[in-house]
Amino acid sequence: MVKNFYLSCDPYMGILMRAPTPSTLALLDAFIPGKPIAGIGVSQVIDSDDPSFTKGDMIWGIVNWEEYSTINPAGIFKIDVNVNVPLSYYTGILGMIGLTAYAGFYEICSPKEGETVFVSAASGAVGQLVGQFAKLMGCYVVGSAGSKQKVDLLLNKFGYDEAFNYKEEPDLDSALKRCFPKGIDIYFENVGGKMLDAVLLNMKPYGRIAVCGMISQYHLETRDRLQNLPDIIFKKIRMQGFAVYDFIDRFPKFLEFVIPYIKEEKLTYVEDIVEGLENGPAALVGLLHGQNVGKQVLKVASE
Ligand code: NDP
């Protein structure tokens, strides 16, 4: 039994509220109406009959959205509290989100120093990390986001070279041509739809697209039809979707990589923490409308 402190709000949770399809079922089970929803949480062990966990241990993993949860220890990670970072980080930079950015960028994008990188939803939980990883590698990095506040963060906090507000600049092709006069080597895809269509026109030959998410498409009755897909052939683009769970064996290596950067303040992480379980639904819906600034976290109890 665990006491829950922090719960993670994630875009995939919206998908689990819809009627399952064969494709979504391949990822995770849909939520059941009338039962608590579940997601990544940071919690403390209250009682355990599993010898690997003792009372007082801090853990992260899948818990229900409630104050206390009885959980199956399979797939639960113990937190090393000596690392001395905010515990909420295990919903984000030090958990699944961090691993998503790490595996998606370094493994799927095959980046090289000096390449040009574009990130959509660039100030969000995953995007802010991808942009910083790309800068650490010596790439030229541009991000798109949906408000002036987020664009300011991209430029002044996360070190993006250029950024634009896609809501104020609906001619996405022109915005991308201005930021990438010679084209894009790597696109880290978080939104899909019209953005992907415009990016395809601006990719360089042999460019790579890591399809992490397509949040603009998850809740549409009729999904956007793309015009520029043949560019994948003409430019010999490699486009690959991925799911973070396939990279779980990289997690220890990822922690070894990322913790020193946090300690040396070479990586920064912005969180948007909402307090109170009763405010969870609004936080989750807000995330799907771009109201979060940084990683959306729900604080259920004080440590
Ligand atoms: P974010 O923290 O980036 O929050 C979601 C953001 O998406 C919003 O703040 C908003 O930013 C943007 N957004 C929302 N609706 C739209 C829309 N209609 N069009 C364009 N942008 C929109 O979330 P995460 O970083 O947690 O997730 C980013 C993506 O990564 C998601 O697509 C998610 O599903 C995916 N993901 C995939 C994983 C995998 O294993 N493949 C694992 C984790 C996440 P803005 O204001 O800038 O528009």
UniProtKB/TrEMBL annotation:
MF annotations from Gene Ontology: 2-alkenal reductase [NAD(P)H] activity
Coiled coil location: none
Native source organism of the sequence: Arabidopsis thaliana x Arabidopsis arenosa
GO BP, one annotated term: response to oxidative stress
Protein name: GroES-like superfamily
Keywords: Oxidoreductase
Domain Enoyl reductase (ER): 20-298
Pfam families per record: ADH_N_2, ADH_zinc_N
Superkingdom of source: Eukaryota
